[in-house]
Amino acid sequence: MKATLPFAAVLACLPACAVPAGAQEVAAAKPVLDRKYDVPKDSGCQVASVVTRDIPPGGEVPWHTHPGVEMAYVETGELELWMAGQPVRKLGPGDSFMAARGVVHGGRNSGDGPARLVITYVVDRDEPLRSPANVPEGY
């Protein structure tokens, strides 16, 4: 039989073990990146994943949708973001965007060097991450 401690008991022990004797605690530094997006409440089992995506100069990300929310941060490079019903957005390092469930979007690297996105997905488990989509009217 496996013995387990209640989670609260484990947490209660952490302050005693977190800082070695004689060491000084350092205040948490302000995060370099702190973006917040409202994620619509969905039903069913979802999974969150964080990935990086490199896009070469002139490379395109074809029009597509996701079975959930995509939140992306531009780490390097210059991008054009295409999103149905919105004007084209020019993005550079430090910019971010969110594509809601089912919103048709895509883009391209409009810069001279590679672009890197750090992307967080909150999507339905066991569904394809991306589904191709037709070019929306107006593009």
Describe the protein's architecture and organization:
With 139 residues, the protein is mostly beta strands. It has a single domain (32-132), classed as Jelly Rolls (Sandwich), CATH 2.60.120. 9% of the residues lie in helices and 39% in strands. The protein is built from one helix and nine strands, in the order H-E-E-E-E-E-E-E-E-E. The protein has one helix at residues 7-18, and strands at residues 46-55, 60-65, 68-76, 79-83, 89-91, 96-99, 105-109, 115-124, 131-132. The longest helix is centred in the first third of the chain and has 12 residues, at 7-18. The N and C termini lie far apart (63 Å).
Secondary-structure blueprint:
Blueprint: H1 7-18, E1 46-55, E2 60-65, E3 68-76, E4 79-83, E5 89-91, E6 96-99, E7 105-109, E8 115-124, E9 131-132
Antiparallel strand pairs: 1-8, 2-7, 2-9, 3-6, 3-8, 4-5, 4-7
Report the principal-axis shape.
Answer: globular
Total tally of structural domains: 1
Which stretches are poorly predicted, pLDDT < 50 over at least 5 residues? 1-19
Helix content: under 10%
CATH architecture: Sandwich
Structural class: mainly beta
- Beta percentage is 35-45%
H/E topology pattern: HEEEEEEEEE
Mean pLDDT: 82
The CATH first-level class comes to Mainly Beta
CA distance, first residue to last residue: 63 Å
Q: What can be said about the biggest beta sheet?
A: 5 strands, antiparallel
Named CATH topology: Jelly Rolls
Write down the Rg: 20 Å
Strand order of the largest sheet: 5-4-7-2-9
Count of helical regions: 1
| Strands, total number | 9
* CATH superfamily annotation: Jelly Rolls
